[in-house]
Every structure is written in structure tokens, then in C-alpha cells.
Design goal:
The protein has 100 residues and is an alpha+beta fold. Helices cover 28% and strands 21% of the residues. It has a four-stranded mixed sheet. A hairpin with a 4-residue loop joins β1 and β2.
Length: 100
């Protein structure tokens, strides 16, 4: 009997010195279901690389994920420590209704 690996829809995070990016990736890893970043026109402003901007990206990714029917994800912090901007994005996404 062969067991298949169960995969989850992932919320991936990337950060640079100036911007925060978040994507909801399909379980197979072949499609981006939703995305949000500080490059989005609604979030673009003077301060895009701080905790406040990361929280706004978290709010937006939660909203967009819910629009495509995703409410449960696995949080993929991409090797970044869970503090500061990464933690703020995760907290805002949870507050917006994503479960992980």
C-alpha cells in the first residue's frame, strides 16, 4: 500500500528591505491563487518596509484568499525568523480570517 503525501495550500512570505510580499500557493505548487504586496497600488506609500505595511499586506492577502475560497493555509515563512514584519503579516492574516 502506497501512502500519498497530503499537501496543504500555503501562504508564503518574502521580505526585502523595502517591501513585503505574500502569496497563496495551491497544494500542488503550480498555481498562485492570491497575492498581495506593498507594491499594490492600494498599499503603495512612503513606508513600505515597516511593520505597519506588513500588517496591511496580511489584511489584503486574507481578503483575497477568502475571495477565491481559501480559508485554511500552512504558513511558510521562507526561512525568515517569526518576528517583526513576518509576525505582523501573520497576525493580520489570522485576524482577517485565515486559519493556520
Amino acid at each position: 500500500m502506497q501512502m500519498r503525501e497530503k499537501r496543504a495550500t500555503r501562504l508564503t512570505v518574502h521580505r526585502s528591505a523595502k517591501h513585503m510580499y505574500a502569496q497563496v500557493v495551491s497544494p500542488e505548487g503550480d498555481r498562485i491563487l492570491a497575492q498581495a504586496s506593498t507594491l499594490d497600488p492600494s498599499l503603495r506609500g512612503d513606508n513600505t518596509g515597516n511593520v505597519e505595511a506588513a500588517g496591511k499586506v496580511g489584511d489584503l492577502i486574507a481578503l483575497r484568499a477568502k475571495e477565491v475560497g481559501v480559508d485554511r493555509v500552512a504558513f511558510d515563512r521562507s526561512g525568515y525568523k517569526y518576528h517583526g514584519r513576518v509576525k505582523a503579516l501573520a497576525a493580520a492574516a489570522r485576524k482577517g480570517g485565515l486559519e493556520f
